[in-house]
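Researcher: Next entry in the queue.
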Amino acid sequence: MSFNNGQLNEALKYIDPANLDYQTWLYVGMALKHEGYSYDVWDEWSKSDSGRYHAGECEKKWDSFTDRENPVTGATIIKLAKDNGMTFFNGESKALDWEDEISYEAGGNDFPEREPHEQLIEYLRALFSPDENVGYVVASVEKDGKFIPANKGNCDRTAGQLIDRLSKCGGDIGRVLGDYNPKAGAWIRFNPLDGKGVKNENVTDFRYALVESDCLDVKEQYAIIRKLELPARALVYSGNKSLHAIVNIGADSYDEYRKRVEFLYSVCQKHGLKIDTQNKNPSRLSRMPGVIRKDSKQCLIATNIGKKSFSEWSDWVEGINDDLPEVENMETVWDNLPELAEPLIEGVLRQGHKMLVAGPSKAGKSYALIELCAAIAEGEKWLGFKCTKGKVLYVNLELDRASCLHRFKDVYSALGFKTENIRNIDIWNLRGKSVPMDKLAPKLICRAAKKEYIAVIIDPIYKVITGDENSASDMSNFCNQFDKVCTELSCAVIYCHHHSKGAQGAKRSMDRASGSGVFARDPDALLDLIELDVSESLIKEEKNKAVCKLCLSALDKIGYSDYSQDDTVTSQKMMSHAKKALSETEFAELTAKISEAERKITMRSAWRIDGTLREFPKFPALNLWFDYPIHRVDEAGALKDLNAEGDLTSWQVMNEKRRKQAKKQNDGNKEKLEQALLNVNCGEPATVKEVAEYLDVGERTVRRWLDKFDYELDSRTKLIRKKDSDTT
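Model: Structure for this entry, 728 residues:
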């Protein structure tokens, strides 16, 4: 390939030296010298990296560049430029914008050439993690004049293993993957597999989809792919009529994968890229870069082009025509910043924002939200946080009407609030009438439009969830409904959700809510409740305090004070004083009160609230007693040293860490042994010495592994075999 008419000068405009590592920067210089450019082109381009540029350095390096057997060519610069948005038509470069009219002329497919194994290594690194299994097929068969895969191929090797072998193959891909027919080419699966098969059910991550079209000239396909900003992790020339774009889908499930692929294909079709719709399944084969096909090469054109993710891309596509506000320049508002929304809950939540209360069953989440309704209506404190007074709507989705109304009265009475502003509370009872949130939101907005609520509380949200709560995209759409309510009504939206199953103590507070992590990331404030493990000794101490307090109150009423300071903290002594000083009737009444107090102490539970806040600094964990029907802050500090249920002690944490490390090492050794037995003699039985030499470990180590992982030596042949096997 030759580069004329300043092609490389133009390409350099798309490459920022500040974004390159040192070696790649040197490669640019080597390529320019190899193509006959003068050093000052490299020097002038390098000046834009003011942080690392040193005068005279380019000239010194330039003189050290000498011809070598495999020189760095201008193709390296072209690839870097293409990765940054440059494309070529008839020798002229062009950066595509959305409004550009696409025009092209048919011509050769002048893609940069690199060593075959290097292309495949780059492809594997772009698409897979080292420990993920890769499926590929090299065997082919001719049918009706067309070569197709002859079998399902291989799927038992990881990307890391393939990359390691390819790095040492001397450019011969066949030494690693097996020989292929140069007339047919070879194929590779773009999604990771479980190593047990190559069907859709064997796909471990619905990560990529294939975009392929053979109805247009290749350069037309390339132009549309780049113009559409497809989030392609790899772009491969098939060696024939098409480009294969491996597009980042990032789906959480097969159902979501299908929906996203449908959307992807519809956008491509709409903008002129006619898609082969047979490529929808996630286990599909695509063309493998770095191999020959007929008289052409299946080659890797680019990696990591377009948008970074499917979500970013889909938002960009849908936002081409939008009614969004204009971009603001910070300088124009620097001295005239808008006022921040006033706090609704001091130090926790602003008016017009969103809050999630998460916790397990028995935490009294609904009671906590009813307490919040009362605090907002009366302008009182909620769990120690001051609330702004105003009107609040409580959307009841779970309780029958009578139970809900009684709860409000019980909570008000227990809190000791006056009912001077009870008119500030509206209740919308929807048990048995609830609809999905995307249908409920407009109905709610319509009913609340003129009520001037400062808060809408929805309890609980599982009743109105739209879609799969484990799907990030479904839950993003679901949570967007809360934004609509906030925006349309200019009020805060507060809602509650349940924890996932299992012990929660070892998790971060924001990871406990059931379903997608969107629940933790979306709200402006997340308050998470987790139960504390109350010991018998603490219950006994709390009962002791209650007895002493009731006894003191009874004795004070009759003016009795013949007790010491030490006596006032011991229930037995205070009961003794009470029995001596009180009448039989008074003592009986006291005993009844004590029994009731002890019963309540036995029944109550302890909780800790952690806050994850967007607008305010994090507050210290808040400890509460759920003393039915309300939560009381632990002002005395009795709960501060308690662990949450499921918390591990320090020694348990260390033991668990050691156990995981040991298992990881054990699994790694087993995998090493199995790979060695598979590769030493091409799968044929091997000796201990052969395996030890292959793994570069001692024979004693190999013998220990054989015993540990259910292998043994055949007594006759001294070859390794699986235990209880009849053949070597």
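Model: Confidence is low (pLDDT under 50) at residues 89-110.
Researcher: Noted, moving on.
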